[in-house]
Amino acid sequence: MSLIQSTAALPKGQIVRWIVPAAVYCLCSTTPGFRIPGLWARQINPPQVRHRQYAAKPPKWRKPPEGLLFSQEDVPPLELWEAGVASFKPEGLTPEACRDAATQYCSIAINTLSNWKGRLERDYGIDNYTLHCMGVILTHFPEVKFGRLGWHMFKTASDLNYDPSTVSMMDFLSTLKSRGPESERQLKLITPRFEKILRSGDPEALTVQGKILLMRIKRQEALGFFDRAIRAAALKEQSTGTPTAGSVTATVSAPADRAPRWPSEAGCYMTRAAILMELGRIEEAKEALKVAALELDIPAAYHLLSLAMPEGSQEQEEYLLKAAVSGITQAFPHLARLEATKAIALDPGDPRRKDHHIMASQWDILANSQ
């Protein structure tokens, strides 16, 4: 069946085949190692928006602490922090501050006792927010030793009862295809903390729980948790007077382009749309995709939304164009066919016919160059 046919006429399985990869992409943003740049940082707000500064050199010890887990060779170079801060945009943190905080961390993190964790903020000014942000940056990069340091920072912040780190750890550990003894031990340790956060109605924790259930092929239960996450965020918005998701007036030409209300909001809406499509609840799925597209400006959502529009409609073309200019290459051949259809519908002498043929040719060239 051709892509240019209306999604309403497609078998549900074929619809879902388009939505699931994009949903998985967005949900992957909840893991410590892969987040949509610039989105998550605006949600994990620091206690006070201030520029952090840390000592650039490690402390001078008369006798280095026994059991140090890291050395100064484990401190990532400034270039890595520059790339990470540029991608993730954590508030109040500069590349230099990250490097210096990592320098101090590697100087005091030991594998015996735990009183050093309390000293991080008291003696060195390194709060949980900073640890969490550095953990996200370091686990994003492929170097194993940097990932090990970032993971340890997550663990430390979680041990100090920092909820975002606990949720990120739960997300990562619970979705591993295979877990070794240490991962199993860590998962057992953080599960009570995560369950406490879950009971509090935290949208991020509810989304992660939905993801876990989805991986166990429990779609209805997963949908319930995604719905709960959306309702929890709406309740918070109502208490602060913030417009709720779906109530914002937005169009393709004037999207709301707002910050997500919780880090995995885009993944929540995209995956919810996939489940609803599977259940045949097409209109509800379209509404979920509209939030992801028009409010959160997720390119894949524009493409998926175009497939649910009447074939050849202006709305469909607008969504396809938005997806195409945002880098969704799957939209190119569809646009080529739309332009060719427009050309065929015109009289041979109509000057617009040539223009549509040219546009169809250009989209076709782009499609075949991928």
Descriptive overview:
The chain is mostly helical. The chain folds into 2 domains: 7-327, Serine Threonine Protein Phosphatase 5, Tetratricopeptide repeat (Alpha Horseshoe); 329-370. The protein has helices at residues 12-28, 78-88, 95-108, 115-124, 128-140, 144-159, 163-174, 181-199, 203-215, 219-240, 265-278, 282-295, 299-307, 314-325, 331-345, 351-368. The longest helix is centred in the middle third of the chain and has 22 residues, at 219-240. The chain is elongated. The two termini are 22 Å apart. The model is unreliable at 1-26 and 28-46 (pLDDT under 50).
Strand content: under 5%
Number of helices: 16
Count of domains: 2
The CATH topology annotation of the largest domain reads as Serine Threonine Protein Phosphatase 5, Tetratricopeptide repeat
The number of strands is 0
Poorly predicted sequence stretches spanning 5 or more consecutive residues: 1-26, 28-46
Order of helices and strands: HHHHHHHHHHHHHHHH
Provide the CATH top-level class of the largest domain. Answer: Mainly Alpha
Average pLDDT works out at 81
State the helicity in percent bands: 55-70%
End-to-end distance: 22 Å
The CATH architecture category of the largest domain equals Alpha Horseshoe
| Spatial shape | elongated
Structural class of the helix and strand makeup?
mainly alpha
Report Rg. Answer: 24 Å
For the biggest sheet, the summary is:
none
InterPro entries: TPR-like_helical_dom_sf
